[in-house]
């Protein structure tokens, strides 16, 4: 399964061509082979794709179908499910069928470890229903069985015309490869530090496995690679180097990112650096959900990361001030929340009936200091009265003051203004012009 790569590990950013380094904005996307996962394109000239993973027992068809639908409605373009036993493998075709009956045709990815070759052999309907297989070269098999079991999974992918993600992981690294590289490193005149050797082992595990898959007969256009770690700087170093050494599409994600703000900040810090350099074709934010919280938070974070970087637009984003002593009223905070929830709830409908509405910009400001200026910069903005200011809220539309709202119905009226603007600017009549 292993192929020797001699390119040295680099801890420095990749050099940018003159045409790939604009004065403003991210570098040009790294050129990769495009992979079709169901109807979704990953890599090449396709936009960066958002994906997520269920945490239900896949054998529970109803619960898994419900969560996949929830993730899809939140904006996940690919959804991965665990396939770890015969019951979960048998459930996959039923899940896909139920989703189709609901009008949801999101590609479902099967996550395999240890026994994937057996599950696909015993459940051919699962092999057919899945849109992609995820294979971990660190635990696809052990000892003499590793190469055979890896080859069997690749042969299933070839037989059923499916792409694969070869996903190496820091927590399940191929120990024999790591030991081999440690031995080789000891013979160097200037040995690398242990961390660099382990990063190299992670990269080699993914790259060598991909080349082995190609030798077996899988097209390069059916391979996506990942090499996940849980440290921000390690992830950046690994993906920079892997991007320099192949043209496979890359799946980005900080594994075991954590819970709450820690997981969000760590994922954003790592992935933003890489995407700013043009690296990455599909992303997942691996958050540990807060107790009782929806799994969809990881989808929202992924979308907001891409949108705030200017790489894609998913839903109107709301600019809102943080508040200060001039804004002792909480009304502007409440309105900002109501507006954000309103447009996010509307987007599944607007995406179909009012394409382009996702690019709408909104501002909800809390006082006169920056309120009017920020409101003029947005398509629609409102400047609410701060402490001691007159009880009036000017509304700006496309840079011009359009009206002033007063009284108890400001929130309702402002939402109506937004809906009316979307209908005018992004409705069928607008596109007919």
TrEMBL record:
Q: What is the name of this protein?
A: 4-hydroxy-3-methylbut-2-en-1-yl diphosphate synthase (flavodoxin)
Q: How is the cofactor bound?
A: Binds 1 [4Fe-4S] cluster.
Q: What is the lineage of its organism?
A: Bacteria, Pseudomonadati, Pseudomonadota, Gammaproteobacteria, Lysobacterales
Domain IspG TIM-barrel per the UniProt entry, residue ranges: 32-302
Any idea which positions bind [4Fe-4S] cluster? 321, 324, 367, 374
What does this protein need as cofactor? Answer: [4Fe-4S] cluster
Q: Which family does it belong to?
A: Belongs to the IspG family.
What Pfam families does this protein map onto?
Answer: GcpE, GcpE_C
